[in-house]
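Duplicate of earlier report; LINE-1 retrotransposable element ORF2 protein input re-posted below.
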Amino acid sequence: MVNCLPQIPQFDEIITAEEVEAVISKLLSGKARGMDGFSMPELKSFGPQEHDLLAQLFNTITATGEWPQALLSSFVALLAKVPHPQSPKDARPITVLPTLYRLWGKIMGAKIMRALLPYLPKDLFGSVPGRSASDAAWELQTALEQAACGGDDIVGVSLDLSKAYNTIPREVVSMLADKCGWPASLKRAYLSFHQNFHRFFKVHGGFHCPTYSDTGIPEGCPIAVPVMIMVTFLAWMEHIAAKIQGKPDVDGIQAVDFAFSTKLRNATQVQPHVLGSFTSNAAVPSRQKRKFLPPEETLCKHCGQEDDAKHRLLHCPHFQQARAHVSLEHALQWPTLLVTRGLARKPASLQAWDDLNFNRSWPMMPECLDHGMHLFIDGSTDGSRSVPRSAWSVVMLEPGSFDYALVQSGPLPGKQCNYRAEMFATLAALCSSVNATVYIDNKSVVQGLHRLQRDGWDQFYWNKSPEIQLWREIWEAWTAFGNDTADRYAKNANQAREHSEVKLYQAACRALADLQN
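Output:
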């Protein structure tokens, strides 16, 4: 069922105190208090110690899948959809979930959305961050105007699903979670909550008896929106994108590389207004449209010849000036997908080059230098902008000397660009010595290091960076010496306990061992 979806990489489900604090700061004070007793103003009064305790509680729940009984009760308020409601269908149920569950759900919902966003089709608008109802309205308005200008027919459908969230099968949610990068512990904890929590319907100011359910997602759940997006994503890929596979001239669309297609379209230098007339085929008589059009409307309105996307791009005299610099002989060799849709798959050799870089193992970065060394790092990128190749190096100079020695160098693993090469060299330099002066000539890397030095590791800030993994490695390498030193002193403190404490500890261990035996 979910095989039509891409496999999204698994994200990290661990919640930090900083994430708890950041989400609480954005909560609206007027939100309803849950049956766990916590109000929004109370959450906002919490300090760092409480944030840390909440993070520990949430991580324990996620790891075990066990929810405290106090977080398994909610009430349902019924909001009238008509002036004089007569039946349950006339009311919209709003589930007021426990306040702490909503806080956990908001943090996890944000993690789910960050994992989903890069993979969602651009045609999905509902509840997707960065895409609003006005965006959908403008896109629809544009399609209507294009149809009106071209004299084309256009058909649409509007559906309103009744109690949509309440009818989502949880078995489907489980399968979607596996495809959409959810860690197994998060899926278990989420489904465990819905399997065990109960609702009290609020009627005439009082509560009805508790009600359980084995299907659906409650409307007030912060994770309900990402779940609905996942369901819509599945429906789109299964019923809409799958239909595209059967259309003429789209063989191999699953292998299309959209970033490469954009580069290739730019390389052909065909004017945008020419591309705009065929890439969507909205205004071009296709094979299917010809069955319903009068004969005269199947002909090109500019030259009277049989009209289709290839004709407009390569043959129509009306667009001759726009494609004057494009070799017709060369253009005729373009893949059909590129000609009729502006799409292209990445050549096998280019894909092999990318695979080589992304599968390249990271080199060992041992601590190998004395204290006080001066380390110079650099990254180098050559080749074309479309096919770059990057490498990095670290060299050492002794203070007061121009004699140098190579510490380490090599080709860059992963995405090839100079910024990453400079970061990788910085990481190697930090790993090679616990106390050295590192010279860096890349402004962006220096700014990132200053940010770490000033604010420490800010998960919310670095989540926005595509190079979060490298920055995390740099932070851990930078703080490793201090952490190791603190760990050593902590172990020394354990060893330095008074003799009476040591004897008491040993007696406690023996007593526990006796009980277990």
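The longest helix spans residues 468-495.

Merging into the original ticket.
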